[in-house]
Write a structure and sequence with these properties.
Length: about 210
Amino acid sequence: MEIAVLKNSGEDTGRKVTLADDIFGIEPNDHAIYLDVKQFLANQRQGTHKSKERAEISGSTRKIKKQKGTGTARAGSIKSPVFRGGGRVFGPKPRNYGFKLNKKLKALARKSAMTYKAKENSLMVLEDFSFEAPKTKDFVNVLNSLSVADKKTLFVVSNTDKNVALSGRNIQNAKVTTTDELSTYDVLNADKMLISESSVEKLQNLLK
């Protein structure tokens, strides 16, 4: 499929780029998308949760009452989980929530996500642009010119332009990423996906 290349002012440049059907026009695989997004979210978890078990509680180890004759259940330690202030039974421990996925499956997930964006007409190609200095105002002007200021927007560039990245980092609904760092989650989480002209070919070569 062909798509027009726009200027960052929103005007048509008169040029078009061809989006490969094996990247932007496949039969989407929802399960691959699910697994890739699940892995992405799992990797965001710190996994530093921890509670103390009875062996880690500070306190006396003496037997708190005699074994028999009290009329209540026997008890050998104040650190028992049945007492207030005692250790927790089977509490959370630090762990890594990450899991492995094959490269081909992750590529399929990204292709599927971008196919959905292409079908929804939520994909735009911009000619390469840069800012002379980091200015949030300049980035906002680009969003306004493209009529996407009120939408979650993902900018995909071939190489991270420091000024562009810094200009967009304080805008809540905008994110700038490179073709190498593009994730399925980012694609699906955005209402509009804007790809720089130079990154189209690089992205297609990356996912072949």
